Amino acid sequence: MKLTISLTFLLTLVSARTLTQQKARRSPTTHRTLGRREVPQEHSHEKFLTLTGAALNLDNPDEIADPVFGLLGNAAAIKGAGKITDADCLQQATADQAFTNAKAAGAVDGMVAALVYRTLERNTGSVGLASVLCTSITPVNPEIAALTQHQDPASAGAAATNKAIALELAVQIDSVGGDPQVALQSGTFAPGEIGDPTGAGNTCDTLDDPEGCIFTENLLVEDATAAEIAAAVAAGSGAAAVGEDAAAGNGTAVDAGAGAAAGNGTEAAAGDGAAAGDAAAGDAAAAGDVEEVLSETDLDANTVLRLTKITKAAAAAADGAAAADGAAAADGAAAGKGKKVKAKGKKNNNN
Question: What is the DSSP letter of 127?
Answer without folding.
Answer: T
